[in-house]
Design goal:
Low-confidence stretches: none
Strand content: 15-25%
Order of helices and strands: HHHHEEHEEHEEEEEHEHEHEEH
Structural class: alpha+beta
Largest sheet: 8 strands, mixed
Bound molecules: 2,5-anhydro-1,6-di-O-phosphono-D-mannitol
Number of strands: 13
CATH architecture of the largest domain: 2-Layer Sandwich
Number of domains: 2
CATH class of the largest domain: Alpha Beta
Oligomer: single chain
CATH superfamily of the largest domain: Fructose-1,6-Bisphosphatase, subunit A, domain 1
Length: about 350
């Protein structure tokens, strides 16, 4: 019997590091810390259905400890893993108002800051639908001293690495450090390792899926609605109508479209002119992944990665996925003035 060689995430990261002769290994270690936090979150996510049996969030479990909400737990795991690692100078999380500076001796000298959404799709937790963790890694603007807000308010085109973990029918970690290379690793629970399962992911240029919350139809711009109508209109030459698929967890919708080809949209609405999704924690990391997999990510007028953030929790409209579909969506969207940039 021939046994196929398994490449673990740690082996893969170390192997990649060899391509950069001056690499110190800090980024590799940082990615390893995030993978560790993901495994801890995954363990808890798998037990989420037992919360009603073992105790509701906010109550005490059999050990007398408070049962935490899963998103708070995920935030704490990410923060703790990064804090003790010494490779991260500070974090900004969707779950906390401000950024957090790690000011111990090692972290103060660290080169990187990390932005994350510890548990994306939290409204899906209670109904056993895939959720995820999204992360983005930047180099500190000023390598000396503790980090400050400007380190987090960098445009996505300055990203060093980004990725997500999807807690789905299997648990996967997908990440990129740029260079048009995106790789996916599936967690083998029997050995507790993420193993390379999806090398060099390329998003199909012509997708066949559109993902949008159509219940907001009445509040979208005319341009967005015209694009949705285009997606539904039969046309043999371009394989329309496209399939409509919407999970309501960005990580899951994005992941499906990344593998199968499609567009994900969270456009501006009349009541939310900047949409719902956060630039730092959701849109930038997904845009970096999309572009490095051969896709696109726009806010309706410009490239997501070129937006310079002005605040930590800034929201932006998002159109991302297969290049042909995003370009087509932009043609429709640009016809209309409702999108406010
Ligand atoms: P969350 O931060 O509460 O998890 O919300 C983010 C989620 C995204 O994962 C998803 O794409 C979007 O919200 C769905 O929103 P809606 O229910 O308005 O369609």
């Amino acid at each position: 019997m021939v046994t196929k060689k398994i490449t673990t995430l740690s082996e893969f990261i170390l192997d990649k590091q060899k391509d950069f002769p001056f690499a110190t290994g800090d980024l590799s270690a940082l990615l390893g810390d995030i993978a560790l936090a993901a495994k801890l979150i995954n363990r808890k996510v798998n037990k989420a259905g037992l919360v009603d049996i073992l105790g509701d969030a906010g109550s005490n479990n059999i050990h007398g400890e408070e049962v935490k909400k899963l998103d708070v737990f995920a935030h704490e795991q990410m923060t703790n893993c990064l804090r003790v690692s010494g490779e991260c100078a500070g974090i900004a999380s969707e779950e906390s108002d401000g950024y957090l500076v790690f000011d111990d001796d090692r972290s103060k000298k660290a080169k990187y800051v990390v932005c994350y959404d510890p548990l994306d799709g939290s409204s899906n937790i209670d109904v056993n639908i895939s959720i995820g963790t999204i992360f983005a890694i930047y180099r500190k603007v000023n390598p000396e001293g503790v980090c400050d807000e400007l380190d987090f308010l960098q445009a996505g085109n300055k990203l060093v690495a980004a990725g997500y973990v999807i807690y789905g029918s299997s648990t996967m970690l997908v990440y990129t450090t740029g260079n048009n290379n995106v790789n996916g690793f599936t967690l083998d629970p029997s050995i507790g390792e993420f193993c390379l399962s999806h090398p060099n992911i390329r998003i199909p240029e012509k997708g066949g899926i559109y993902s949008v919350n159509e219940s907001y139809w009445n509040t979208f711009s005319i341009g967005v609605n015209n694009f949705i109508r285009y997606c539904k209109t039969p046309d043999k030459a371009s394989n329309r109508p496209y399939n409509s698929r919407y999970i309501g967890t960005l990580v899951s919708d994005f992941h499906r479209n990344l593998i199968k080809g499609g567009i994900f949209m969270y456009p501006a609405t009349t009541s939310h002119p900047d949409g719902k999704l956060r630039l730092l924690y959701e849109c930038n990391p997904m845009a970096f992944l999309a572009e490095n997999a051969g896709g696109m990510a726009m806010n309706g007028k410009k490239r997501i990665l070129d937006i310079v953030p002005t605040e930590l929790h800034q929201r932006v409209p998002l159109f991302t996925g297969s290049k042909d579909m995003v370009e087509k969506a932009m043609e429709f969207v640009l016809e209309d003035e409702l999108i406010l940039i």
